[in-house]
Amino acid sequence: MPGLVLASSSPRRRDLLGQIGVIPSRIAEPLVDEAPLKGELPRDHALRLAVAKAQAVARGPDEIVLAGDTCVGAGRRILPKADTPDVVRQCLELLGGRRHDVWSAVAVIDGSGRLRSRNVRSVVAFKQLDSAEIEAYLESGEGVGKAGGYAIQGSAAALIRAMSGSYSGVVGLPLFETRALLRTAGYPLG
Ligand SMILES: Cc1cn([C@H]2C[C@H](O)[C@@H](COP(=O)(O)OP(=O)(O)OP(=O)(O)O)O2)c(=O)[nH]c1=O
């Protein structure tokens, strides 16, 4: 059975793979500049970074490499991965009361070096958020380190009116597409 390298520092991606019974034989942190290019659209950004992360990690003989990227987009605008509570606040002020896109890209390089990728769009609708709700969410600390400043898998779920698309993709790895790519790459999955 070919080994699987997960090119990700994200514990969420490891957990999501575990949810479908996939245990990487190796985890490697991809060192990639995640800054958007000038004028880059959210969908292009997610795909470019997933591919770059997969390519940044060395592949041993008979190893498959998998990487992903999650990008939150408000129209043509890319929201940052919130690194401080202030950025979380700015994101929530923008996202409250409207719909936004979450692009979830996954890239797989197979044992012969062939790259395949998928990019999934989800749409998430937040309720109108008043300042007390935003401050309460900031208190939770859950938004820091997350694309768009929130995590759907935590207390933010209670502020989300609706979503369509891939729930696992919003969390960090679209599992339907990931399974299909892994199978095509020769990784044995039932
Ligand atoms: C929108 C959203 C994002 N996120 C997370 C998933 C990703 O970890 C993060 C987006 O950053 P990414 O750059 O996709 O991933 P990462 O930096 O955590 O890990 P790596 O690049 O090493 O693979 O935001 C959630 O956990 N829940 C959500 O609802």
TrEMBL record:
Pfam families: Maf. One of its GO terms (cellular component) is cytoplasm. Gene3D superfamilies: 3.90.950.10. The keyword Metal-binding does not apply. The keyword Cytoplasm applies. It is found in: Cytoplasm. One of its GO terms (molecular function) is dTTP diphosphatase activity. Its EC number is 3.6.1.9. InterPro entries: ITPase-like_fam (IPR029001), Maf-like (IPR003697). PANTHER family: BIFUNCTIONAL DTTP/UTP PYROPHOSPHATASE/METHYLTRANSFERASE PROTEIN-RELATED, BIFUNCTIONAL DTTP_UTP PYROPHOSPHATASE_METHYLTRANSFERASE PROTEIN-RELATED. Nucleoside triphosphate pyrophosphatase that hydrolyzes dTTP and UTP. May have a dual role in cell division arrest and in preventing the incorporation of modified nucleotides into cellular nucleic acids. Belongs to the Maf family. YhdE subfamily. This is dTTP/UTP pyrophosphatase.
